[in-house]
Amino acid sequence: MLRPVLEYRHPENAKAAIALQEELRQQISLQDDFGDVQLVAGVDVGFEDQGATVRAAVVVLQLPGLAVVESAIARRPTAFPYIPGLLSFREIPVLLDVLAKLKTTPDLILCDGNGYIHPRRFGLACHLGLLLDHPTIGVAKSRFLGEHPALGEVAGDWQPITHQGETIGAIVRNRTNVRPIYVSSGHRVGLASAIKFVRQCSTKYRLPETTRLADRLSKQDGVL
DNA sequence: GCGACAG
DNA sequence: ATCTTGTCGC
């Protein structure tokens, strides 16, 4: 069971959303602050009815081994448009719904989207982690912000991503000769640990098993 | 003004 | 994110 310690506040418009991000970002911790990690959750969000419905899926895996412990799905009406930089206001509500359905309490959550890799350093993973006061990591499938040195081609290769003079995350090659993923801190997990956990949750695919299975669960409506 | 732009 | 089949490549 995972419940928010901070109530989710829904902004009326983009301007209010940005102001809220500026306020909440002050409370994010980029330091490791967790105990033994034995249960890792992966969450993913998708849409139905031409975008009118938001759907979230969560899969909890054991560490080590990545055995599936449990999973859940939730749906609700979409209440915020997609605006780059304001993604969390579109996905957080249904993510809180689905996480509340868990009977176990994962020690760490891997999100489908960025955390600290964000114009105001408050991406989806940061927002979710702060509301739950739980360790979170952001894992994005495509580039959003920042620059980085050339990346090697071997699985495990990575390079820091910087933006306005600050290291905000890392581009990680999770599989040899396959497109990289973008990893960043959400809340209570430092970048080095974030990369370590993402690698620990990965096997033979581009994405870590957590997000990969959550994505499959979401698209196949409950079938793993 | 122009181009970029997580999901 | 979603609309969509076969096809090139390891």
From TrEMBL:
Swiss-Prot/TrEMBL keywords: Cytoplasm, DNA damage, DNA repair, Endonuclease, Hydrolase, Magnesium, Metal-binding, Nuclease
Biological process per Gene Ontology, one example term: DNA repair
EC number: 3.1.21.7
Intracellular or extracellular location(s): Cytoplasm
Enzyme class: hydrolase
Pfam families the record matches: Endonuclease_5
Catalytic activity: Endonucleolytic cleavage at apurinic or apyrimidinic sites to products with a 5'-phosphate
Site positions for Interaction with target DNA: Y82
TM region(s), chain numbering: none
Residues in the signal sequence: none
CDD domains documented for this protein: Endonuclease_V
GO cellular-component term (any): cytoplasm
Cofactor(s) required for function per UniProt: Mg(2+)
Coiled-coil region: none
A GO term for molecular function: deoxyribonuclease V activity
Chain residues that bind Mg(2+): D44, D112
Similarity comment: family membership: Belongs to the endonuclease V family.
Known function: DNA repair enzyme involved in the repair of deaminated bases. Selectively cleaves double-stranded DNA at the second phosphodiester bond 3' to a deoxyinosine leaving behind the intact lesion on the nicked DNA.
NCBIfam families: PRK11617.1 (NF008629)
Protein name: Endonuclease V
Naturally occurring in which organism (per UniProt): Romeriopsis navalis LEGE 11480
